[in-house]
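dumping this here before i forget
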Amino acid sequence: MAFPRYDAPHGLGPPGAAPAHPVRQALASAEGLVRTRGGRSASVAVVLAALLAGTAAAAPPDPLSPLLAQARAAVREQPGMWTGASVARGEHAVVVGAPRRLVAEVARLAGRADRTVTRVWGEHGGAVILVPRTEEQAAVLAAPAVVGGLAAVATGDRVIVQPAAFARLSAIGRQVVVTHELTHVAASGPRAVPMWLLEGFADYVGYLDSGLPVHVVAAELAAELAADPRAGGGAGAEGAPQAGAEAGTAPGTESAGTESAGTGAGAAAGAPLARLPEPADFAARPAQAYEEAWLACRYIAARFGERRLVALYRAALREDADAALRNVLGLTTAELTRLWRSSVRAELARS
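structure:
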């Protein structure tokens, strides 16, 4: 999803900069409320004053007060970055940065993204979105997360936009990226979820209203499956996809003896559909790994319903992922892997 891959959410993504995402590259083709002028001290003072607006004792409570406090803290951490900065307030977001037109655009995208995230996930606390001027500044703000080649990064309750990469995205690409990152912020919790679920769910929400067909979003994976001889049946021995293949086969109906180590931690990164993607896969083949993760969550939503997908994610924030799968979907990881693999092959064959 980012057409330069944009994500290492919460600073937990795979080490190293991910290469540009070709699909997103193919897709690449209001005003802020305050603009400060003058030197560093004057600029920061005005930005802080703008962020404090609406908090007077006589005024009603500002619903954005927690986000405004977080934005003020962010400005104080790196005051030199915000000379000439603009501030835009949305219903559930505060955007700080420059140039003013980009800040206003990001605020608009965040408003639409928030509606999608709220519809799927439910109410959440919103986010602070920081728009620095350079990739170097974005790297400082996002550390220890990596921003090289990415369009945006979610770190805790903040989203940092990498301006050069973000500028290369199409309108659809920008919306997908902002929605993906706000999903990460909304769905953050005390326990790390498996990376396939973390990224797949964010992509599921991000692409939900994009109108993009499967063959566009998963173009790299489709090409990999067509070209890689290991994809014919190595990971699960289902063989080539059949035009009439049933994506919703009941769990347990596949041959128990056909599953290889491809569904476990011992599977080597690099083989398409070898397993639900893990951190090593996101590092070795990021575009395909994100697409695999997206298709896994898309499959769960299609077969069990979107509410069950959300319930699975919420359960994985509380308990072991295997237990969450059993309790919410009635599946083991191996069973989900086989079902997902068959579904992906069938769907990509049709598209």
